[in-house]
Amino acid sequence: MSSYGFWMISLALLYTLALIIVGNVAKRKANRGEQYFVGGRTFRWWTVAFCITGLFSGSTYISIVELSYLTGISAIWYGVAETLQVLLIALLLIKSFREKLIVTISGLIGDQFGRRAKALSGAITAFAFPMWSVATAIAFASAFHVFTGVSLSLSVAFTAILLFVYLQSGGMWAVAFTQTMNTIIFAIMFIIGTVAFFINPGISGLQQLAAEQPNMFDWGGAGLQVILVWFATFLVNVILAQAAFQMALSCKTPEEGRKGLIVAEVMSVPFILLGILFGLSAAAVVPDASLGLVALPQYLMEVLPAPLVGLFFLGIWACALGWGAPCQFSGATSLGKDVGSAIFPGASPEQLVKYTKWSLLLLTGLMIVFGFLRTEQSAWWNVLAWTMRNSATFAPVVAALFWPLVTKRAVIGSLFGGFAAGLTWYHLSNWHPADFFLNIHPVWVGMSVNILVMVLFTVAFNYGNWKITNSRSVKGAAVLAAIAVLLVVNAFFYESLHAAGVVGLTLFLNVLAVFIGSIIYIKPKVAEASVQKKVVS
User: Fold this and answer.
1) Strands 522-524 vs 466-468: parallel, antiparallel or unpaired
2) Which parts of the chain register pLDDT below 50?
3) 288 CB contacts (<8 Å, ≥6 apart)?
4) Alpha carbon separation from 225 to 96, 436, 498 (Å, rounded)
C-alpha cells in the first residue's frame, strides 16, 4: 500500500468511527418510530440545508467531476437540472407534504390505495436505492483501488458495511449529523482541490486544453439527448425524491423546510463549479484515463503530498456517505416500515423500527452483491434504478395527490405494467447504460406504460362511476392544446426527433399531457352530485 492509500484509509476509518460513536449517542433519541424515521420532525432550517446539500450536491459533484472529465463544461447542465429540482420541491411540495406528515412515497401510495399497493411500491422503491448507493460509492472505491490495488468490488463492499454499521444506530438523527459534518469536510476538499488546480494545470493549462480540445468548452458537448434527459429526469423526480422528502419533511415547520431547501440551493453552487474545474484539471494533466473518477486520484497524486490527497478523498468519502446513507436509510424505511406494515398491519412503531434495521442489513447485502456484479459502470446502476422506481411509482403518486377517481386495481396494474415495461425495454437494449433500443431511454417507455395502464384501467373498470366534465378553465384548454401540438410534432418530425434521441421524451410528454387532461376532465359522478346538492341547498 502506498502512502496515499495509508492516509486515505486512515482518515476515512477515523472519520467514520467518529460518526458511528455519535450515531450511538443519537440512538437515545431514536427509540420510537417517529423519532427514528423523521427525527421527531424537529429539524431546523439549517439541519435541512445540510441534509439536502449532502444528499444532492455531494452526488451531483461526483457526477460532474466524471462528466466534465469526459465532456467538458457541458456537465454544468447536470448541476442546473438538479438545482431546479430542489427549487421546485421547495416551492411546490414541501408545505403540502409536511402538512400531510408524509414519510415515504410508497407510504403515500399505500395510505391512498391499500396494503397491496403499499407492499409492491415499497419493495420496488427499496430495491432501487442500493443501486444508487453503489453508483456513488464507486467514486470513493475508484480512489481506494488506485491507491491500494484493492479491487473496486471489495472497495464497494467496504463502503456498504461502514454504512450499515453507522445507520443501525441513530436513524434520521444519525443521517442529519452525518450531513452536517460532511459539509465541513466538503469545504476542506474544495480548498485542497483549488490549491491543486493553481499548482497544476492552472489557468494557462486550461487555456492550452481549450486550444487542443475546443469541444471540452462547448456548452452542448454532452449532446442534446443527454442534456434533455438530465432535465426531464430531475423534473419528473420532483414528486418522487423520497430520500429528499424524508429529510426535508423532518423539519419543525413547513417554513423551516422550505428555507432549508432554498439555502441548500445556494450551497450547491460551489459543488457544480468546482466539480467542473477539478474534472477539467484532471483532463489536462491525465488525459488518457478511461474514467474521470480514476483520473482524479492520479491527477492529485502528481501535484499534492499524501496527507493532502488523503484529506481531499475524505471529502469524496463524505460525498459517498452524503448520498449513500440517506439512500440506504430511505430504502430500508420503505422496506421495513411500509412493506412491514402492509404485511403486519398490527405492528407497533418499535416493531417497524426493528423491521427497518433488518431491512438495512438486507439492502447492505444487495449493495455488496451489486458491487460484485457490475462495479465499473456507475451509470448502468443509475439507469436501472431510475427505470425501476420511476416506471412503477410515477402515475400512482400523481393519482394519490390529484385524481380521486383512480381505483386500487388501476394502481396495482400501473405498478406492474410500468415496472415490467421499463425492464423489458432495458433488456431489449442489452442492458447497455447509454445505447438504448430504438434510441429510446427505457424510463420513458416504462413511465408511459405506467400512465396509460392507470388511465385505461380507471376508465374501463370504473365505468359508470365517472363522467366527462365541461371544463372551460384555462389550464384545461392549455392541456388540450399541448396534446394537439405534441401529436403534430411527433407525427411530422418523428425522424428528426429520433435522430436527435429525444423521440422517447416527446412521446412521454404526449402521454403525460393525456394524463393531465384525464385528471381535469374525467371526474367522479358522486363528487359532482354532491357539489350540485350543495349549490341547490
Assistant:
1) antiparallel
2) 33, 527-537
3) none
4) 33, 12, 10
For the chain, what is the radius of gyration of the CA atoms?
24
The predicted-structure confidence for 202-238, as pLDDT tens digits, reads as follows 999 999 999 999 999 999 888 877 788 788 888 888 8
Q: Does the CA dihedral 134-137-139-143 come out positive or negative?
A: negative
Identify the pLDDT of residue 327: 82
How many C-beta atoms lie closer than 10 Å to residue 316's C-beta?
28
Residue 401 burial class via C-beta count within 10 angstroms: exposed 0-12, middle 13-18, buried 19 and up: middle
Cα–Cα distance measured from residue 317 to residue 320, given in angstroms and rounded to the nearest whole number: 5
**What cell does 109 get?**
401510495
Cα–chain center distance at 120: 19
Give the number of C-alpha atoms closer than 13 A to the C-alpha of residue 150, restricted to the C-beta side: 21
Report the alpha-carbon distance of residue 425 to residue 443 in Å, rounded. 9
SS3 380: helix
The structural domains of the chain, ordered by start, are: 3-22+31-395 (1.20.1730.10), 403-536 (no CATH)
Q: What is the pLDDT of residue 377?
A: 62
User: What DSSP string describes 192-226?
Assistant: HHHHHHHHTTHHHHHHHHHHH-GGGG-TTTT-HHH
CA–CA dist 337, 175 (Å, integer):
17
Q: How many CB atoms lie within 10 A of CB 495?
A: 9
258's grid cell: 422550505
E strands within 87-200?
none
**60, 188 Cβ separation under 8 angstroms:** no
Q: 497 near 490, Cβ under 8 Å? A: yes
For residues 302 and 200, the answer to whether their CB atoms sit within 8 Å is yes
Question: Angle formed by the axes of helices 115-148 and 378-402, to 10°?
Answer: 160
Q: Which residue has 472497495 as its cell numbers?
A: 155
Residue 526 burial (CB count, 10 A): 12
Q: How far is residue 311's CA from residue 443's CA, in Å, rounded to a whole number? A: 38
Contact 115, 342 (CB under 8 A): yes
| CA-closest candidate to residue 243, choices 176, 156, 184 | 176
Distance CA 326, CA 55 (A): 7
Question: 337, 104 in Cβ contact below 8 A?
Answer: yes
Residues 6+ apart with CB under 8 A from 478: none
pLDDT at residue number 122: 94
Please state, in angstroms and rounded to a whole number, the distance separating the CA atoms of residues 451 and 180: 39
What grid cell was written down for 170?
Answer: 441513530
Of 5, 27, 24, 31, which Cα lies nearest the Cα of 350?
31
Q: What does the DSSP 8-state code read for residue 31?
A: S
On the 0-12 / 13-18 / 19+ scale of CB atoms within 10 A, 260 is buried
pLDDT given for residue 534 in this prediction: 44
Q: Which residues pair with 522 in a beta bridge?
A: 468
Find the helix or strand (DSSP H, E) in which 26 lies: helix 3-26
Distance from first CA to last CA of the chain, Å, rounded?
Answer: 83
